[in-house]
Amino acid sequence: MRKSLLDHLLDWAGRIVLIAILAFVLLPFVVVAIASFNDGAILSFPPREWSWRWYANAFQYRDFGAGLTNSLKIAVFGATIALIAGAGFAYVLDRYEFRFKNTLNGILMSPLIIPNFTIGLGLLILSAAASLPRNLWLVVATHVVIVMPFVVRSVYVSLQNFERRFEQAAESLGGSPWHVLRTITLPLLAPGLASGGLFAAILSFNEFTASLFVVNQSTQTLPVAMYNYVREYADPTLAAVSVIYVLAVAVILLIVHKFFRLEKVLNVE
Amino acid sequence: MSSETRNDAAVQIDGVSKSFSGTVALEPIWLKIRRGEFLTLLGPSGCGKTTLLNLIAGFLEADEGELFIDRELVTQVPPHQREIGIVFQNYALFPHMTVAQNVAYGLRTRRVSKAETAERVAEALALVKLQDFADRRPRQLSGGQQQRVALARALVIRPRVLLLDEPFSALDRNLRTAMQVELREIQTRLGLTTVFVTHDQNEALSMSDRIAVMSQGRVRQIGAPDDIYDRPANLFVSTFVGDANLFDATLQGVQGGAAELIVGGAPLPVETYQEDLPEPGPVTLFVRPEQCRLTGAEEQGAVPAIVALSVYQGSYAELHLDCAAARGGRIMLRVPAAKALPAGIPVGIALPRTGPAIYAVEDADKEVA
Amino acid sequence: MTKRPFLGWFASPSILIAFGIAASFLAIVQYSFRANIPGALDPGGFTLENFTTLWKAIYGDAFLNTVLLCLWTAVFTLLIGYPLAYAMVRARSVRLRSAILLISLTPLFLGEIVRTYSWMIVLGNRGFLNAALMQMGLIDRPIPFMFTMTGVVIALVHFTLPIVVVMLAAGLSHIDRNLERAATSLGAGRVRVFLTVTLPLSIPGIVAATSTAFAWTFSAFATPQMIGGGQVQTISTLVYQVGFASFNFPLAASLSLTGLLFTVAVLAIFNTGIRRLERIGGH
């Protein structure tokens, strides 16, 4: 098939546009990587001297370590709770009819449209009104509320694609409902549950706005600690933290992509 | 109902019906499946055959009516306590288990000892000739092998009834025939009561002891394959099972078991097996293609037609004929391939004196499959 | 026969969480009708004053800014996101598709802080962009991006892009390629195929992406807070400021509530639009 001049032009225009857009997406991460090696406390491009000192500083700054610990704890607890509750709800949503099903679904999905600052403010006011302590569990609860809809959606999609015949075959072979759930449904849903849980953990780890409302000095998460650092200091320590952050996430995503294929997880095949 | 007839029924369906959100999937149905019988539920998609199968299995709950398996009332019994074996269309082999684990599943749920489980699994795999595949995963097997595993898995629990939900539809033609023979052999050897769901009339005719032809949630006829094929009870059955040529005819009267008909202007006396003949007047006459005989155009009493298309089928040819007396203007005949005629040739069709069935016209309008 | 053996077990945790969500929402509603007692954390008696206060100019400006940010961000994100999504779904080589996928989606998992901070370094007066432009001799003095709408929109587009690409790609990937092939076989060139087949069929995805872009931008806090630096006040930054600088939680609550009602209204309009489009599409 011979291509016309117009086709060639379109091909080239498409390539240039695509490269420009990808450059836009990558630009801030490249710039932050360069900045992180800038020796001086005040930024300059290109850097006059290069050094690793801001990486050392990042590791020595206490709030980042404490924030990372908090964030990991919160992500693990929050994702686990959201996964258990969300998977259970996705199951009843897919399989059963019951009263107030739509109401329950509406409330649980509402954090998708309620802005995070409103969720944070609401839970802060609620905990104050109920005289609950502002501890780590309040942050965990906030994160559960925020990541639940994503877990429910992801597990629900897995359930919709689930071949019910497997369960029926197992039932016909004498498996009681619990037995079938344990030996057939859960093992076959495991990839969907794992990706849902991982997605929830990543979202929770990144959550900033709602956390800002509900944390205190001792429960601040890594993003909150980073935000507070920018407000106090102008040096490139945060650039170093950002580079580490980006690399860690990219590695995790590459692993996930290997095992689950992101196209599938995100339904863009 | 005498206790003897009830003893005879492995599955008894008493007035069971089912609707889905207002749409009737199954009208109240009465059916007895005999012990050791191979019964086929045959019908087009949406006829209710799969609904009936799911009701027997317990995956659906009947709206009304009662269901007995081995004289035990099971209407309210959940599927896992019904002791039924099922082979699904796509086999539903558990992908996360080996072949042996799949077959052992039903024994594990019954807490059968390890030694006995191993023995019975080996036995079941031997029955379907898959001894050497015990440690494979389902996806490493061919379609035919997967189906054998599904069968072994269903048989190993010694089910009271075996349900087959279109199990052959995913196989290619040669394999399908081989599997049909093999399944029927095993079924006969074990004397296993079997309910087989299919939309494929050839499969139904070749495998069954009895066939229940279904449409629109009702059983339209139940009987042995030759009953169904040779003496269809109504127009639906006649057109759904096998090929049918339909003619517009006029019934003039009945005299001593012979119906006086006019077809294509010529008189045709027909000996009929039917007990419920329609009223005299316009009727629809049903004739199997193999009962029609091709004659010269001028032959006395033959219905005139013109060859429209000849379709080569290997051992024979299908002649599609334009025929003014036929419903829809078309009929089909099979002739030896060597005798195929080119389009445009006028011919005559001689209709048989025995065998054709006569149905009321209004049935024909709504019931042609 | 128990037809719903797991209902109680499986629904209970989520019911508990739903009660939590409903309670926190009611807390906001309740606070927004209470008077603020300066210096005290507990609110005073019932009042409508919070809502009448909202008519003041600074609150009105925040609403206007938020709407403008949402609008501009949605427009630019769609313009940039559509080609990216198209390339992601349609690129011929698997490697290229994977690369585009990873590059465009990684930011989704990076959170607002890292991304916003990176843009601060790009957009600052001594930042990368101004340094580059000055070195090329295109400008003598740095262009102010920080603390301006332009800067906030640039960062917000980058923030919203990944989710918009996901939604557009999901829509594009579900278009039957044979429809395009059919159009080509009927003599349509590539441009015509795109304009008459691909683009119309991807409209539902575009509408869904737009409403999501709107919700994300509306919800954004770190970006307008850090890049706007108090000069570009939005509802989110205002709620935070009223709550944590003035400790006026009743007013913060009423601002949040008004903002939420506004979001719901906009999304409802979007949904009506989607339904209408689907009816035109013959779904």
TrEMBL record, chain A:
Transmembrane segments annotated in the record for this chain: 12-37, 74-93, 105-130, 136-159, 180-205, 237-256
InterPro entries recorded: MetI-like, MetI-like_sf
UniProt keywords, alphabetically: Cell inner membrane, Cell membrane, Membrane, Transmembrane, Transmembrane helix, Transport
Membrane topology designation: Multi-pass membrane protein
The UniProt record lists the keyword Transmembrane: yes
Predominant cellular place of this UniProt entry's protein: membrane
Coiled-coil regions, chain positions: none
Keyword Transmembrane helix in annotation: yes
Positions of the ABC transmembrane type-1 domain: 68-256
Cellular compartments annotated: Cell inner membrane; Cell membrane
Family classification: Belongs to the binding-protein-dependent transport system permease family.
PANTHER family (alphabetical): INNER MEMBRANE ABC TRANSPORTER PERMEASE PROTEIN YDCV (PTHR43357)
Name assigned to this protein: ABC transporter permease
From TrEMBL, chain B:
GO molecular-function terms, A-Z: ATP binding
Pfam families associated with the record: ABC_tran, TOBE_2
Residue span, ABC transporter domain: 11-241
Reactions the enzyme catalyzes: ATP + H2O + polyamine-[polyamine-binding protein]Side 1 = ADP + phosphate + polyamineSide 2 + [polyamine-binding protein]Side 1
InterPro entries: AAA+_ATPase (IPR003593), ABC_SmlMolc_Importer (IPR050093), ABC_transporter-like_ATP-bd (IPR003439), ABC_transporter-like_CS (IPR017871), Mo/tungstate-bd_C_term_dom (IPR008995), P-loop_NTPase (IPR027417), PotA-like (IPR005893), Transp-assoc_OB_typ2 (IPR013611)
Catalytic EC class: translocase
SMART domains: AAA
Gene3D superfamilies: 2.40.50.100, P-loop containing nucleotide triphosphate hydrolases (3.40.50.300)
E.C. number(s) listed in UniProt: 7.6.2.11
Keywords: ATP-binding, Cell membrane, Membrane, Nucleotide-binding, Translocase, Transport
NCBIfam families: potA
Self-association state and partner proteins as the record states: The complex is composed of two ATP-binding proteins (PotA), two transmembrane proteins (PotB and PotC) and a solute-binding protein (PotD).
Function text: Part of the ABC transporter complex PotABCD involved in spermidine/putrescine import. Responsible for energy coupling to the transport system.
UniProt record similarity statement: Belongs to the ABC transporter superfamily. Spermidine/putrescine importer (TC 3.A.1.11.1) family.
Protein name: Spermidine/putrescine import ATP-binding protein PotA
Species assigned in the record: Paracoccus albicereus
Biological classification of the source: Bacteria, Pseudomonadati, Pseudomonadota, Alphaproteobacteria, Rhodobacterales
Gene: potA
From TrEMBL, chain C:
Superkingdom as given in the UniProt entry: Bacteria
Keyword set includes Nucleus: no
Keywords: Cell membrane, Membrane, Transmembrane, Transmembrane helix, Transport
Listed InterPro entries: MetI-like, MetI-like_sf
Stretches that traverse the bilayer: 7-33, 62-87, 99-123, 143-172, 193-216, 249-270
SUPFAM superfamilies assigned to the protein according to its UniProt record, in alphabetical order: MetI-like (SSF161098)
Membrane topology according to the record: Multi-pass membrane protein
PROSITE patterns: ABC_TM1 (PS50928)
Location(s), subcellular: Cell membrane
Signal sequence residues: none
Domain ABC transmembrane type-1: 63-270
Major subcellular site: membrane
Keyword field contains Cell membrane: yes
Family, similarity comment: Belongs to the binding-protein-dependent transport system permease family. CysTW subfamily.
The protein, known as: ABC transporter permease
The species this protein was found in: Paracoccus albicereus
Source organism phylogeny: Bacteria, Pseudomonadati, Pseudomonadota, Alphaproteobacteria, Rhodobacterales
